[in-house]
Amino acid sequence: MTLTNKSPASPSTLTRRGSSAVGDRVFSWWTLGTGLLVLAVLGLILITTVREAWPALDAMGLRFLTERTWDPNPATGDAVFGALSFAYGTAISSLIALLFAVPISIGIALFLTELAPRRLRAPAVTVIDLLAAVPSVVFGLWGILVVAPALVPVYQWCHDVLGGVPVLGNLFGPVVSGRNYMTAGLILAIMVTPIITSITREVFSTVPRADKDAALALGATRWEMIRGAVFPHSFGGVVGAVMLGLGRAMGETIAVALVIGGSTNITANLFAPGNSMAAVIVQQFGESTGTFTAALIGLGVVLFAMTVLINVLAQTVVRRAEARMKGSVA
Amino acid sequence: MASNDTDLTTRPSVAVHAPGSTAAGAETTTAPVMQLRDVSVYYGSYEAVRGTSMPIQQNQVTAMIGPSGCGKSTVLRALNRMNDPIPGARVSGDVLYHGQDLYARDVDPIQVRRRIGMVFQKPNPFPKSIYDNVAYGLRINGIKGRLDDHVEAALTQAALWDEVKDKLRKSALALSGGQQQRLCIARTIAVKPEVILMDEPCSALDPIATAKIEDLMFELTNDYTIVIVTHNMQQAARVSHYTAFFTAEVDDKQVRHGRLVEFSQTGKLFTNPADKRTEDYITGRFG
User: Fold this and answer.
1) B148-160 pLDDT per residue, tens
2) Which of B17, B110, B116 is the best residue to mutate to test the A interface, defined by the most A CB atoms within 10 Å of its own CB?
3) Engineering a disulfide at A63: which of A67, B50, B162, B171 sits with its beta carbon 3.0 to 4.6 angstroms away?
4) Which GO CC terms are listed, alphabetically (chain B) (predicted)?
5) Is B129's CB within 8 Å of A208's CB?
6) Which residue has the higher pLDDT, A129 or B23?
7) Which CATH superfamily is domain A90-323 in?
8) So what's the ipTM on this one?
9) How close are the terminal C-alpha atoms of chain B, in Å?
10) Number of H helices, E strands in chain A
């Protein structure tokens, strides 16, 4: 039996109507185009920065990544450009930032989604979002003028108490000034907390009521409900939020430049001054020429590569962990 | 009641209540496990259900039926304080469990829900493995002994073991709807509650899966007391010993309230209802 037997008009009504087909095609080209645009911009950034950095990368070779000395104007011989000290500074300051920001952000987000009375939620969210709106140079100035000096006695106390502990004591070495990895990390922590908080809050609020009810109906306390129903549901999203925060921390320039101390070294001592890649670029770019400029751009390339690498790594970790936690679907 | 095994104020160190330790077990036919006395449930100032009184008999299935919006689910959730997390929800009257008021000031809702478990309308397994779904309740209740044995026992009792024993580490979300619902039942009975509340447990399932759950309910009455809310009158007639018929009523101020119309043995309610409204409903004249 064919459709035409039932209704003579039906074949024509089944053909594609002109306007909707055009709309669909425009929409699909538009979305495809914007998607490709992002890739193109990323690719162009990578290509042009590598080209600009090439004189330095060519001169240094792999040593650009493994050399810890950074000496653009040596008294004798060629300039030496090694990114390692700064990459270390970027990594350490960002790590400290996450160490403080992640538990605090998750705590705030849980409070806002699970515990806070309804009328408190909106104002609290506004205040946290305001924190994200503070320009980073303000954080930097606040850090250098207020936080750094104020923390010196605290650092000194930590050094006195923990400095003697084997292995761990290395982290709490002598305090030179308030401008060091730790201060940079703490300032970064304050800066990334709003981002991580606001995304984790969104993620937590998508956990279905049914899942929470299921946990409660089994006699779960609120914390057990959060561990059993909220966390498994939101693990991937929370890691995504942390990665966005990490990206911000690693890329943060002016605030770190002001409080990290500006010295080229690699040390376990968190109370020692150091430098980060982004901070070095902003400090030295104005006075650089030729290969020196190329080397600074090279730092940018390394930073870019590090960020991408960490994000890819995080995605792999999330996939593995989710498969283990949620059970494999296949 | 500090030393009584039905004391709900503190979390016991050994969570499984030993078989036979429940005094009421010996007096099945006389004292009901639960008793509602003039229970009203409010959301804010709105009285959703008004003045409900009925018993829940031990090792029997009690069904709650009625049209949409008659408050049967609301009453069900009041039986294990699942309305507590809803802002503004409040209960008046007495919800007695072995004579103890579940809404007394010193009663811990966590303890209430340990003894009075719940299965929901939509199967809601956690996004975890099948094993971890069942083990979750055991872990949070600190149940001693081999977790594996408890998990197997619960899955077996829920008539699911044979279907999942080779894929315990697979995601629970990969199961079919009916299997997911039986997993949810396994998860509930794993913590050995005394009463299981079921809120339209089959409404999202196909007839075959529904039949399996109904068979399972019959089996479960050996060990548990079941209260089921259902939209399906035939289901109530098939599975329950007692039936409560609820309806929605509009009062003088044009406000809708849920009300219990009639409670009796299922056979009687369906063949010889005392109330005209019950008769109209079960004969399909309204609702």
Assistant:
1) 999 999 999 898 9
2) B110
3) A67
4) membrane
5) no
6) A129
7) MetI-like (1.10.3720.10)
8) 0.83
9) 44
10) 15, 2
